[in-house]
Write a structure and sequence with these properties.
Strand order of the largest sheet of chain A: 2-3-4-11-5-6-7
Order of helices and strands of chain A: EHHHEEHEHEEEHEEHEHEHHEH
CATH architecture of the largest domain in chain A: 2-Layer Sandwich
Number of domains of chain A: 3
Number of strands of chain A: 12
Distance between the termini of chain A: 19 Å
Largest interface: A-B, 85 and 85 residues
Number of helices of chain A: 11
CATH class of the largest domain in chain A: Alpha Beta
Oligomer: homodimer
CATH superfamily of the largest domain in chain A: Malate/L-lactate/L-sulpholactate dehydrogenase, NADPH binding domain
């Protein structure tokens, strides 16, 4: 049921609306199509934090000149199995989509292919790209770090931010919905702490430390000043979440040369790492998909633990939400809708 | 201080002793050298669970005919960037070392290379191979699943075992000690529950579920019958540890064709997956190593949280223990020493 001010739009109507705003803001048509596709598919997949809620932020960055529509995507280093791109601060979704498309073509010959992107803006939901790769018969790894900004996540055993939320993503083809692993290495994204603060709620145990390094349930202890830190995930064994964060930082920022946290404050962006492995280089794709499907069925056959209805495979919630929202529409909350309507009004776009 | 019956041996003495036992048990000299190297280096690195404690188990398996010294390592599928090996149930460390050496040579040309191993026995400490790859200028991923055996780890939201402890390992060169991520996707290895049971101790919260799917602190609830299950790591967000376990299972068992948990009960082994990425294909190795070292320094500069002395980078404990034990020797506990002495006596080997 729609809250007052909220709107439910069909996938098609939301696409048309988003594309019109981007085009009116100066984004070339082909780029507007790409960024719209990635954002709307995030909403379809249930990840509203990476969906059209980003449009006002992106349009503001275009007006400020820090997002550069139409920027070139240059290859600055290459071998037969690797490429490093420079996105020149174009739209992140556009750079990533083009780099991925080109790399999948190159990977057809060499079977394993990896690329990095430097000077790249926010690429959105990592799972999007891994799902595209899976649909083309590739097992992929996609990671990003946060370049040019202060770090909010503490290392294990530390009390100050030294790392970003550093997400790690992989997807595997199954012939139907991919198996998708898409997770931050922190216990929680900063946005969720902001929501709790705005609602005047306490935080669950294990989310943050205050400036002195003591566990806290008060969102104010994170925002400070002085600022606290978000914890890596893992609870008792959070050295594992920390280790995952380090490997994401090394792949995304160090191996690619995009730059690491702590190096310099500058334009905020994503250092991007991607690896593609053509399943056919290991075994016939159909055999892999059958075996992956059998594994998923075996895991799902596990009876539920106390408090659970059933075992859910990684990627299942995204696929189920896509089917539901494709059929019955995407609800846009009142705040987001009001911001989108403001952007539309600014550019004289019609609201659906 | 040595406990009664425990022994402290120099690295060299332990190597000689281990090699002699393997050779006496019918392992060819070159294979005995390899398996000894991997086991003793595990002890040196502080991972005694993967060290010479395994000798009686391996020798017993050789006598039982399920470990096959001298077995061929065949290539059963290959492309210019991938290989699938069949180890014919030879010693796992031997198969893995030879496959890695050959693959590093091939990877010099193609820059990205991946291999899998089928019908492979226990390969020991994954970090060993990732460290070797790092010393040769490669970023690597090494994962194994457990083929042919019942699974002890529950999926997130489930109450019965459906997965192995499924470790995930990566290492990165720094010019000195590598940065090493080497972790199981379960909260704990089964062996640690066994130790608690033998000591009559309770388990910490979050380790196991009983057969009904309720959290338990009693080791007996894991062993049953009926048997309980170990939890994936992550606590509140254990769906992340579960997701890591799934990707390890898909890489190690499904992509390689080595076989997955739940498929059949048979000879217990490791399905092995390894990916090698030549750093030079992305940027000059020296630049990468400098940037990785700066990142490590920045992360370590974080002041410690309550209850910690300092921030420790992944791989640091292993490197520090290696330096300490190389200098002052490796202590072998009384039970292990007695078992090793029994093996030596069986084959007429001298004990050091």
């Amino acid at each position: 049921m729609a809250v007052s001010g909220a709107r439910t739009l069909s996938e098609g109507a939301l696409r048309g609306f988003a594309r019109a705003i981007f085009e009116a803001s100066g984004v070339p048509r082909d780029e507007a199509e790409i960024v719209t596709e990635v954002l709307v598919r995030a909403n379809l997949s249930g990840h509203d934090s990476h969906g059209v809620i980003r449009i006002p932020q992106y349009c503001g960055s275009i007006r400020a000149g820090v997002y550069v529509p139409g920027a070139a995507l240059d290859v600055v280093h290459s071998t037969p199995t690797t490429r490093i791109y420079d996105a020149h601060w174009g739209l992140g979704q556009v750079a990533m989509t083009r780099a991925l498309d080109e790399s999948m073509r190159l990977a057809r010959d060499v079977r394993l292919f990896s690329f990095g992107i430097r000077q790249c803006n926010h690429i959105g939901r990592l799972g999007h790209y891994a799902e595209v790769a899976a649909a083309n018969g590739f097992v992929s790894i996609v990671t990003v770090n946060s370049t040019g900004m202060g770090a909010a996540v503490a290392p294990y055993g530390g009390r100050e931010g030294r790392l970003g939320t550093n997400p790690f993503c992989m997807a595997f083809p199954t012939g139907r919905d991919p198996i998708l692993v898409d997770m931050t290495s922190s216990i929680v994204a900063e946005g969720k702490i902001r929501v709790k603060r705005n609602r005047g709620e306490k935080l669950p145990d294990g989310w943050i430390l205050d400036r002195q390094g003591n566990p806290s349930n008060d969102p104010a202890d994170f925002y400070g000043p002085p600022r606290g830190a978000i914890l890596p995930f893992g609870g008792e064994v959070a050295h594992k979440g920390f280790a995952l964060s380090i490997l994401v930082e090394l792949l995304s920022g160090t191996l690619t040369g995009a730059g690491n946290v702590g190096e310099r404050e500058g334009q905020i962006g994503n250092g991007v790492f991607c690896l593609l492995m053509d399943v056919e280089a290991f075994r016939p794709l159909g055999d892999f998909e059958s075996a992956a499907t059998r594994l998923a069925e075996y895991v799902r056959s596990c009876p539920p633990a106390e408090g659970f209805q059933r075992v859910i495979m990684p990627g299942e919630p995204e696929a189920e939400t896509r089917r539901r929202r494709s059929a019955s529409g995407i609800e846009i909350d009142a705040t987001t809708w009001s911001q989108l309507a403001d952007e539309a009004a600014r550019y004289g776009c019609e609201t659906p």
